[in-house]
Specification:
This protein has about 120 residues and is of the alpha+beta class. The chain has one domain. About 30% of the residues lie in helices and about 45% in strands. A six-stranded antiparallel sheet has the order 1-2-3-4-5-6, with helices on one face. A hairpin with a 5-residue loop joins strand 3 and strand 4. The protein is rod-shaped, with a radius of gyration of 20 Å.
Length: about 120
């Protein structure tokens, strides 16, 4: 009976440590902003990257455009961050960036992406 208690308490302890680790290392909004800026080489214009400036090539010329969120969702969860965002340029709707990302253990990873960021 004593051995069973020790095993049960050990199992509870391991689960608590794993849960705490996942909770503490879950990425936050600033981690997402850093990931966006590094992954897409953009300059986010606000604290959660709902809008950003992006260099594109249009008709053979470099141009700076602003992409803004038109729809999206954020699921903070206890252990995992999940964001699904659709970015568009209001001046030219042919510029598209749709992303679905997941964040766990301090890292943000791309799950799905649709992008059209250049016009030739």
């Amino acid at each position: 009976m004593k051995k069973r208690k020790v095993i049960t308490l050990s199992l509870i302890g391991v689960i608590a440590i794993i849960g705490t680790t996942l909770f503490i290392t879950k990425p936050n909004e600033s981690d997402f902003v850093m990931w966006m800026e590094q992954t897409y080489d953009v300059n986010c214009l606000d604290s959660n990257c709902d809008a950003f400036k992006l260099k594109v090539i249009e008709d053979g010329e470099n141009k700076l455009i602003t992409m803004q969120v038109v729809s999206g969702g954020y699921s903070p969860g206890a252990f995992v961050m999940n964001r699904e965002l659709k970015y568009r340029n209001y001046e030219n709707s042919s510029y598209v960036l749709d992303i679905d990302v997941i964040g766990v253990l301090g890292k943000v990873s791309l799950v799905n992406e649709t992008k059209r960021l250049s016009i030739e």
